[in-house]
Amino acid sequence: MVDRPAPVSDSSGQTDVTEAGAAPLDDALPQHVERVLAGYLDRRRADVLGVDPAVAQIADALAGFVLGGGKRLRPTFAWWGWRGAGGDPRSEHAQGVLTAIASLELVQACALVHDDLMDASATRRGRPTVHVEFARTHAANGWSGPAARFGAAVAILAGDLAQVWADDMFHSAALPEGAHARAAEPWRAMRTEVLSGQYLDVLAQASGDTTEATALKIDRFKTAAYTVERPLHLGAAIAGADPQILGAYRRYGGDIGVAFQLRDDLLGVFGDPRVTGKPAGDDLREGKRTLLIASALQRAEQRGDRAAHDVVTGALGHPEPDLERVRAVLSELGAVQTVEQRIAALTGSALDALDAAPVAEPGRSHLFELAERATRRAW
C-alpha cells in the first residue's frame, strides 16, 4: 500500500492540494462549472422563449435553482476522476469535458426539485422550493384551482426539463472520438439508478420498512451512485481508463457515496439550519427511514426499551417532533455511534481501493481530499 497524501493547510485553515501539474481549469473548478452552466441555461432559455414567453418562467426558476447554490460535488468528482485516469486539462477537448461533467448539475437539479415535492419540503438552501414558489405565484395572481396543485405540476415539469437539458448538454459536449460511446454506460446507469433509489425511498416511507438493509440500499442507489460512483465512472470513461482504475473508482465511489449520505442523515437531525440550509428535523418530519433510525429502532427492540422505540417512531412523520428528546434517545441508544463507525469503515474501504490503483496525480490527491470533505462535513 502506498502512502496517502496529506492535504496542506493554507493560512486560512482551508485544505489545498498543490501538486505539480495543476492547470488553470483545475483551479476554482466549481466556478468554471458555474460559468458553463450559466451560459448553457441562458442559451436554452432562448429556445423556450421561442415557444412562448410564459415558458421562460420555468426556465428562469430552473436557472435560479441551479445557479443559486450547491457544492458542485458531482462535476468535481467527475473532473478528478477524468484527471486521475490521465485526462489532460490543457488538451483541446478539456472544455468539452467541462461541459459534459457540468451536465451532472442538471441531473442533480431534477432529483432535488422532484425530491422536494415528494417530501413536501418548504425550503432548499434557505429559499422556497420550486413547488412552493409557484404555488405562491398562483395564489398571488388569484388564478383558478388549488395553488398547491399548480405548484406541484410546475415542479414536475421543471424537474423534467432539467433532465432533458442534462441529456442534451452531455451529448452536445465536444469530446474526443469514442468518448461518448465509452461514457454511455455510466450515463444510462446513473439515471436509472437514481430514479430506482427514489422509488425505494418512497416505498420504504409508505410501507414503514425500517430495516438497515433497506436503508443502505436506498443510500446506495438514491445517493451514492449518482453523487460519487457514476460521476467518477463517467470521467474515467471519457478518459479511456483501464479496468483497474474503473474498478477502484466504483468501489471508492460506492463507499464514499454511502458515507456521504450517512453524514447527511446525521446532519438532518443534528445539523444547524444556518449551515445546512434546511430546517432541522426535516428527515423526521418526512418520515425518512434512514440507517440512523433503523439502527435506533433495532437497538431499542433488542433492549426491550418500548419508551425509546416509541419516541423514535412517534417522531417519524410528526409535523413538530421534539428534536431535543429524539436526539437524546438516538445518542443514548448508540445509533449515532453506529452510523459514525459505518462512515469511518466505508471511508477506510474507499481509500484502500484508491491506494491500490494506478491513479495519476493530481487526481489521486484530490480524490483523497474529496473523501475527507464529503464524509466529515458540517454543511
Automatic annotation (TrEMBL):
EC number(s) recorded for this UniProt protein: 2.5.1.1, 2.5.1.10, 2.5.1.29
Co-factor requirement: Mg(2+)
Protein name: Geranylgeranyl diphosphate synthase type I
Keyword Transferase among record annotations: yes
Entry-linked Pfam families: polyprenyl_synt
Region (Disordered): 1-25
GO molecular function, one term: geranylgeranyl diphosphate synthase activity
Assigned keywords, A-Z: Magnesium, Metal-binding, Transferase
Coiled coil: none
InterPro entries: Isoprenoid_synthase_dom_sf (IPR008949), Polyprenyl_synt (IPR000092), Polyprenyl_synt_CS (IPR033749)
Entry superkingdom: Bacteria
Organism expressing this protein natively: Pseudonocardia parietis
Record family assignment: Belongs to the FPP/GGPP synthase family.
UniProt key word Transferase: yes
